[in-house]
Model the fold of this input.
Amino acid sequence: MSFKRYHIPVAPAPNSAPHPHRFNVNVSKVGLASLLIREIFHYRGDMNAVLSRPCMYGVFSGPVGGFAPRADNCVGCLRCTVQYPDMVRVEPNPDRLELGDSYFTPDNVDTVLYEAATGRVPVKGAGYRGRYGGPGWDGMWTDMSEIVRPTRDGIHGREFISTQIDIGEHPAWLRFDEVDDSDGSRWRVIRLPLPMLFDRLPDSLLSGGWEAALLDAAGSLETLAIVPWKALREMSSAPSALVPLVAPADVDQLLEVTWRPRMVEMVGWDAEVFARLRSAWPECVVAVRIPFGDPIDEPLEFGCRTFHLVADYHGRTSSGFVLGAIRHVHDALVERGIREQTTLIGSGGLTAAEHVPKAIIAGLDGVALDTPLMVALQGRFRGECRTAESCHVEMPNVERTWAVQRLVNLMGSWRDQMLEILGAMGLREVRRLRGEVGRAMFQADLEQEAFGEIEGYVHV
Amino acid sequence: MSMSDKDDLLMMAVTDKHTQALRSGFSRWPGRGAPPPAMGDLRWPADLILATWAQAGTGAPPDGSEAHTHGHSEGGFDRLGFKWLPEAAQLEPGSEIDLAIPLNRRPVDPRIEIPVPWYGAGMSYGSVSEQVMLARAMAAEKWGTFTSTGEGGYPDSLLEYKDHVITQVATGMFGVREATLKAARIIEFKYAQGAKPGLGGHLLGDKATVSVAKMRQSVPWVSLFSPFPFHSVYSVEDHRKHVDWAKTINPDALVSIKVSTPTDVDMVAVGSYFAGAHILHIDGSYGGTGAAPEIAKKNIAMPIEFAIPKVHRYLLSEGIRDEITVMASGGIRTAHDIAKAIALGADGVILGTSELVAMGCTRCSNCERGRGCPFGLTTTDPELSLLIDPAWGAERVSNLYSAFAQELSTILRKLGLSKVSELRGRTDLLTYLPHKAGVNHVH
Done:
C-alpha cells in the first residue's frame, strides 16, 4: 500500500461575470486642473514631479490620470482623499450592498469569490475589523496551544494534518457467528479526504446542468455531491462522487438503474424505503435527510446510522440557530452511547471557512455545503435565499471547466483554513475535533467569567 | 549633474510633495466635520481614527467629544464604562497623579520603572520601515518607556536608543545576535502573537528586501516563515531554559514572555512565572499584524478583555500576582481602553496599532499588498518609507502619549485614585453598558 498525500489542485480562475468593485472614486476635475497648473509652476515644469500620483494601485494610472479614475483598482487605502480632502472622495460602492442577502453578507460574498478565484487563504494586514463576537458562529472562538503542534516536522506541522473523515456506519465491535463469519454487523464506511460534501442545489437551478460541474468537482476532490433524483434520470453511469437524493415515491425508479452509488440519501425517514435500499444495495451507505430538531429515535432503532441534518440557508432550525442544534443532537447521541457508530452531516448556515471547523467542534462529522457553491460560481441571489425550494439564484453563463476549478479552489482554500485552525490547536486530524467543545470558547461563557462581577452585566 | 543625482532630486521633490500633502490632510481631516465616507470599521470607527490623528497633532485629548474613547464593536472595552465618583468626591483637577509602573516585581534583578503604564509593541524590521522603528524608539526615549524590535533584527540606527528598546527573540530567531541581546534591558521571548495565534509569522517575499534579508541573515525576495512554536520548548522546564539562556548572555536583562490567549492562558501565565519571567505579555486575538489569515484574526483565541481577568485572578489565587508584571495588548486603542485593561487586572498595556494610526494609518488592511503600506508605515519600499520622517513620527507618537497620559490622569481623578497602580483589578469601578443600536458598517 503506497502513501498518497492529499492535495487539492488549486489554480487561478478569475471572476467570469462582472463584479461590483468595492469603492467609487470621485475626483473634482476643476480642482485637479487647478492643482496641476499650480504644481507646474511650483515644480518649474518638472512633469515627473507634477504627475507623481498619490495612488500605488493604479486608480490614476489611465491616460488622463485622475480625470478618469479607475475605481476597480481602488483598495480603499484612502491616501488620495487624505492628501486632497477637497478634491478626492472615496466611498463604498452601493452596488455591493446588493450582493448576497441578509445572512450571506456582501463581505462574505467578496471573501468566497476571492477564495474561489485563487484557492488561497485570505490574508490581510492590520487587526480584526468586525464586530466583537456576535450571534451564531461569531460567538465562538477556537482554542490554540502555545507549545503543542500536530508534529514538529515541516514548517508549521500542518502539512501532516489529516482532514479525512468516515461517512457511514461502523459498529462498535465485530460479532461473529458459529462459522466465524461476521453476522452482518458490517462496516459501511466511505472515507473522504476532507469533511466537506456538496449539497443539493436549489430547485431553481436543477435544470441548468450545474450538477455536472458539482459532480466533476466533487470527483476531483474525492468527496461527494448530493444530487436530487429528478436531475439524474438520464444518467447512464454513476460518478464515484454521486449521492442520489430520493423521495420515497422515487425509490422504485432508483432501484431500476444499472449503476450503483456508494451512498444514497433519503428525503425524510421511511422505514420501508430504508429496508428496501439496504436489502437491494447492502454495500451502500444509506443516509436520511431530515431537518434539525426532528426526532431520530425511530431511524436509530431501525439501524440507520447516517444522518444528514438540515437547517435553512440562514442556519435556522426549529430550535434556534444551527450551532445549538448540532450540539444538541451530538450530545444526545453521546448520551445514548452510539455517537461513535453514527455519522452526522450538517447543512445550512455554513457560509464561511471558519464555520466548518466550528460545526465540527459542535458535533458534526462533516458538512454539506450549499449557498457558498453558488456564490463561488458568481451566482447572484435575487431576494433572500433562505431555502432550496424558495430561493432564486441568477447564475452566469460559464464554462464547465471554469466552474469546476472555482469549486475546487473554494475547497482548497477552506481546507487550508481548516488546517490553520487545527494547526493552532495542535490537532493532527480533523476527526479528533468532532464534538470537542473544550477546543472552543463561547462568548457567553467568557463574558460571564470576565464581566460577571461588573455592575450592569446580565448573563445571556 | 549625473543621472543619479537627478533621480535623487526627483525623489526628494516627489517625497516632499506627498509628505506635505499628507501632513496637511492629517491635520485637516479631524476638523472637517464629516470623516471620509470609506474610512473606519467597527473596532476603529472613522471618528476614532480622526480623533487619534487630532491627538497626535495636538498632544491633548479632544474637547467635547467622546469619539476618542471607544469603538463600535458592541463588546469588550466598547461595552465597559466607568463608575465615576460624584464630582465632590473626585480628586482636584491638577492634582498629582502617578502613572508609573514597575516592570520587575521580583526581589532580584534590576529595577525598571516606566513613567506611563504602556510601552510599544513589537514590530519587526521588514513589517515596518526603519524610519517607523526609529520614530517609535525616539518617542519611547522621550517618555522613558520602551519599544520593541519585533522579530526582524536590530538596525544599527536603534543602538542610540538601546536603553528604550526591547529586543525580541521569536521562533525564527531572525536577526537575533549576542551583541543586541547584551545591549537590551529587556529581552522578549515571543511564543505567539494575538492576531495569528499558533500560526507563526510570515514575511511575504515582496517585503524581504535586500536590507531586510541582510538583517535577518536570509535570502532577498524569499518569503520568510517564523515557524510556530519554539521547537525547543515542550514544557515549563524548557521554557525556563530559554530564560536561563537569555540571562546567561545578559544577566542584567529583564525577561518578558509574550503569549497569546488560549483557554488555559491562566496556566500559561503561571508557567511563565515559574520559568522566571519578569513580564508576562498577553496578546489578545483582536490585535494588530502586518499580515495574517483573516480566519485567524477573527476566530482563534480569545480577545484580551476576557484574558486579563482570567490571568489576574489566577495569579492572585496562586499568591504570585505581585511578583510578575502583566502587560496586555491586542486592541488597546485609547486611554479609556488602557484604564479598562488595568481595571480588569493588567499592570499596563502595550500599544501597536494606535501608534501607527498616530503616524497616519487609516486601517485600510493593505499592509501586506504589493509594495506595502501606501502611507510609508508597514513597508520597506525605499520610496514609500521616506514618507515617514523619524522626527515627525516621533513627535506624533509622543503627542499621542501625552494625550493618553492626560486622559488617563483625568480618568483616575474622576475615580478618586492618585496612582494608576491603585486601579489594577478594580472591576468594581467598571460598569457594563447596555447594547447600543445602530453601528457603522464595515467596508
In short: Chain B has two domains: 1-33, 101-432.
